[in-house]
């Protein structure tokens, strides 16, 4: 919900009175709790309540100043008289033009005293410093999560409201924020801007690249607290946990058999559908499981990766090796004498 506070009275023409300069307190949609952030509706100035209140006081005090008066007149009329010579952008004030021009010049005059990063704007530096301080001043009243910026809080709150205002113009799918929509659009464009410097594989998302690179580095940062096993992804850890919990959340709607992993259910369902998506490129024979295809292809390649440690004889399948080893052990598992 929003609450508007207005500053009454001014010496300027009534039709664009300072009543249009307001402080908007942005709060959670479901509660009356206010978030300490404000916005001057005319100049789009942002900051804490104290900063905006001072800004409005200065506006009221200095409204007779022609330069400030012109800013408000331009905002009210929609006029943007300050033009960038490098692109077609226009702005209501010279200050906003100067900030914009740093995009073209690459100038970043605001440096962080904690690290080597620098920024074009002082407010961006202020937000960045929260990385070092750990400050997260914006809190969600629904779940207690904290965020470094108001924008991140507002995007987060869509988890609770279910709001998805960002729509893909290709397929109609909706998303809670523009960043996720932007990444989704790469499905349609085929764009994969993130490349692995080890093998050249390309990915649509930076997060997917980071996960992939663990194949090369061997990094497994996700640790199972029950047995000490480690995994490259959080998803793999969650799947592993089901060994300890016995959880099998995926059920077959044909026979009722349940599985710990979705991939196992998908493989099982081929028993019912008869689907055999894996074909041999040598003879055309088809299989329902990829490992069955791998074993079959050894007929063509002659590969025998399983070796008897007693006599050195080799086999194409582990079951053939196990059967052979009974010659050495004398084991008779089927009760024959």
UniProtKB/TrEMBL annotation:
One of its GO terms (cellular component) is nucleus. SMART domains: ZnF_C2H2 (SM00355). It is found in: Nucleus. InterPro entries: Znf_C2H2_sf (IPR036236), Znf_C2H2_type (IPR013087). It holds the Pfam family zf-C2H2. PROSITE patterns: ZINC_FINGER_C2H2_1, ZINC_FINGER_C2H2_2. Keywords: DNA-binding, Metal-binding, Nucleus, Repeat, Transcription, Transcription regulation, Zinc, Zinc-finger. May be involved in transcriptional regulation. It comes from the Eukaryota. Residues 82-109, 110-137, 138-165, 166-193, 194-221, 222-249, 250-277, 278-305, 306-333 form the C2H2-type domain. This is C2H2-type domain-containing protein. Belongs to the krueppel C2H2-type zinc-finger protein family.
